[in-house]
Amino acid sequence: MARLALLLALLTTSGKSLSLNRPASLDVLLQVRLKSPQPANLETWLMRRSFAAVLPMQPMLVLPLEKPQHGVSITFRRKPSSEKGGQDGGIRIACAADSDDDGNDMGTMLLTRISEGQYTPKIFSERAICRSIINDLKGLPEDCGTVLGVVELPAIERSRE
Fold this sequence. Notes:
The protein is α+β, with helices and mostly antiparallel strands. It is built from five helices and six strands, in the order αβααββββαβα.
């Protein structure tokens, strides 16, 4: 559990500076454990996913994360107004490699909620993207790693409260 907390802290840092401060708005939606992960290949694979086809009525912007991190940021968009900006939340998918106690190459892909700019919960959109990723993992190329396990975390349910 301590490893997961450290991994979460490292995945949430931006740029080149590392910080162990965890943002208050971080909600983990999905965790995927991988064997022999290749984060750069996972990022390329994620960029090829057609998230717009999953949610055709939801405008979104999909961008790779700032280096040295690997993954993508899916930002839900809306028409900006004087009261609200153009960002309406989103999902951040971060990939990281590490090793287990026996020295085996292991890794994690985390899907976390971006709640910045979100005025109404995006439960349906978040769930649809998580389901899409889970379905797409069945065809994950070998050069990205091997899926060991998928854990859907209750952050989606917490957002209803």
